[in-house]
Amino acid sequence: MLIRRARPSDYPAFAAIEAQHPGYPAWGEKGFEAEERNRNSVTLAAEIDGAAAGFINFWILRPQVQLNTLAVDKAFLRRGAASALLGKLLEYAAKNLCREVDLEVNERNAAALALYRARGFELVGKRPKFYNNTDAALLLRKTLPLKD
Ligand SMILES: CC(C)(COP(=O)(O)OP(=O)(O)OC[C@H]1O[C@@H](n2cnc3c(N)ncnc32)[C@H](O)[C@@H]1OP(=O)(O)O)[C@@H](O)C(=O)NCCC(=O)NCCS
Question: Which residues line ligand 1 (CB under 6 A)?
């Protein structure tokens, strides 16, 4: 598996991955394109066997990193792609001297909650009825260690 910067030619695959996960907020190709104009924005692809199998987007807003979107192709779930993408986000965070990573996740998204808990994220808040005016968003944060 290769984690690399996303390219415009990945966006159709990213949109197809989003479509595999009903209810997950989709950016579509246009949304990924728009991020190219945001200089704080980083989009990465997880490539497996030459194809884009997952993506992550985050904003580096020092001292904070905001994780905006993360999804993996259903054919490649539980192979460590999301963990690898998240691991690369943490590398960017450390290089940019960021102190915390923040994200929002649907309270019913058990897979994502398990992933983030395993990576040391903690619950710091809740937004009721955030998704489709029904499900709450949980606000999770990972505090990064200070390095000498
Ligand atoms: C959540 C998601 C990104 C996980 O992707 P993934 O590549 O399958 O995750 P990984 O293989 O890296 O899993 C890492 C750990 O997360 C946890 N995890 C992942 N999927 C899980 C599931 N379905 N049930 C329980 N735990 C799960 C496990 O602890 C797993 O470690 P393990 O496989 O050694 O047990 C994927 O299910 C997805 O794309 N979901 C739809 C989009 C989404 O909800 N994104 C999250 C946005 S907040």
Answer: 21, 24, 70-72, 77-83, 103, 105, 109-112, 114-115, 118
**CA 45/CA 146 separation, integer angstroms:** 28
Rounded CA gap, 18 and 27, in Å? 8
Which amino acid residue places its CA nearest to atom 24 of ligand 1? 111
Reply yes or no on domain 2-143 having CATH 3.40.50.720: no
Determine what percent of the chain is predicted with pLDDT higher than 90. 95
C-alpha 37/C-alpha 100 separation (Å) is 24
Residue 148 pLDDT level (bands cut at 50, 70, 90): low
Q: How far is the CA of 18 from the centre of ligand 1 (A)?
A: 14
The proportion of the chain whose per-residue pLDDT surpasses 70, expressed as a percent, equals: 99
**In the chain, helix, strand, coil percent, each to 5?**
30, 40, 30
Of residues 66, 62, 54, 44, the one with CA closest to residue 20: 54
Mapped onto helix, strand or coil, the DSSP state of residue 23 is: coil
128, two tokens: 């009721």
pLDDT higher than threshold 90 for residue 145: no
Q: Which atom from ligand 1 is nearest to the alpha carbon of 69?
A: 47
